[in-house]
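Budget justification note: compute hours in this period were largely spent on complex prediction jobs such as the one shown. Inputs:
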Amino acid sequence: MMIEPARAKLNLALHIRGKREDGYHELETLFAFVEFGDKISVDVAEEDRLAITGPYAEALTGLEGDNLVCRARDLFRERFGIDDKVAITLAKHLPVASGIGGGSADAAATLRAMARQFGIATDHPELMRCAETLGSDVPACLFGRTAIGRGRGEKLEAVDDVAGIPALLVNPGVAVSTPAVFARWSGEASDGLAPGRAIQSAMASRNDLQPPAIALQSVIGDVIKLLDRQQGARLVRMSGSGATCFALFARADECHRAAANVRAAQPGWWCSETALA
Ligand code: C5P
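Corresponding output:
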């Protein structure tokens, strides 16, 4: 059996450079990952099965056919000419449709686990082509390292390591539609990300999807305000198209205190105290 972590991705910054003919947006975004996430396990079996466990299993139940995990499994077998059946377990710890790439991370972890199960190198170039087919964030999740993403997000350039920085992730429990947020973007194209090392660049940049997401779900603005008030929060921002927001701290005890404050103020919100990976 092969077990692979499916770490949550953050967009430490996201600049929209323009709208493309194909309907997608040209991006320059800084991807990072946190220790916390879902988990995928793959094993050969008599027939195909997908079991979903964990706190967010229910949100996906009944949608197995549409699940990005199944699409990753099927695409992998098609591209590598493999017929074997597999049993997959997805431990779903990340909120669904929340801007931290849960589905994309699951798909990337499935590709990696399938590759290991069937003796294919995890850096095989065809795996990256599978990832591009599955979604804009899947290549970054397969790459799995802090990187600048350009194009739809699939053209990746590794940047300096940011591992260990304490991070607090907060989601107010509203699902946000990515196409709806992009559709609300002002249309004013941004320049590229600010120059410098990853964290400095992120601090001097923004997430262009944050204002349109707040316009659709004002509670995201409340999350930002609550995180901004936490002592030691160095960078507070929404990730992706939301609604999850994050705060980065210099020290783990500051992150811990902020997590306690958020849980006390908003017991119904999802809150994960973790670190950049
Ligand atoms: O590639 P993916 O299927 O994950 O994209 C979901 C949606 O997000 C697209 O249909 C599009 O509306 C929007 N999107 C975009 N520009 C990108 C990435 C995603 O407009 N670079």
